[in-house]
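Batch queue: ligand-bound targets. Current item pairs a single chain with glutathione. No template structures supplied; prediction is de novo from sequence plus SMILES. Inputs echoed for audit trail.
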Amino acid sequence: MKLFYKPGACSMASHIVLNELGISFNLDKTDTETGKTESGGNFRKISPNGYVPALITDNGDIITENPAVLQYLADQAPDAGLAPPNGTLARTRLHEALNFVSSELHTAFGPFFSGTELDPDAKKKAEAGVRRRIDHIERYLADGRAYLLGDSFTVADAYAFVVLNWTKFVGISLGAWPKTQGYVARVAARPAAVKAMVTEGLIEQEQVA
Ligand SMILES: N[C@@H](CCC(=O)N[C@@H](CS)C(=O)NCC(=O)O)C(=O)O
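Prediction returned. Tokens below.
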């Protein structure tokens, strides 16, 4: 399998999941602006929308869109438990969480990464949008559960973690959401997340305690 990624972007969720599963994969760093990949490929031929993640499976199929890529990966090793079995209410809860992260939390960060400097009003509005979605993550965790769906880590946690980690880059402190802050630290400490962050250059190996 090959994952097309951009350091620290949402594609890091799939990178974390590949590490969690311990299956063999290659990475191809992608410049979404030029459409070139590190290995010299034309990314727009692989994924005409031009954004990461994109996954080429061992059969040569191309999968895009975070919720689809993440669930495809989880389903390659069902015993790892990164997605509940299809047809169960628990799987519907996973869809619910993945769709929330994708269409609400992730999308709320869009204005910060639009490439245009936000004026104070636009920044305030964008921050309020992010804060409202983090409130919902805090509600998920209100009963003391370790992860979004309960006490087991799932692909939704990989995705939520990557997106919540962007608060650092946009100047929003997670201090106002203690459960979310603890959750982000918990996922960040997982060896699979540490390995992905080191590989993508987000943290130095020496920073790993
Ligand atoms: N709907 C897409 C969104 C993916 C997305 O927003 N990717 C960003 C990185 S987090 C990207 O590649 N942006 C560059 C671009 O849009 O050109 C998905 O869920 O996979």
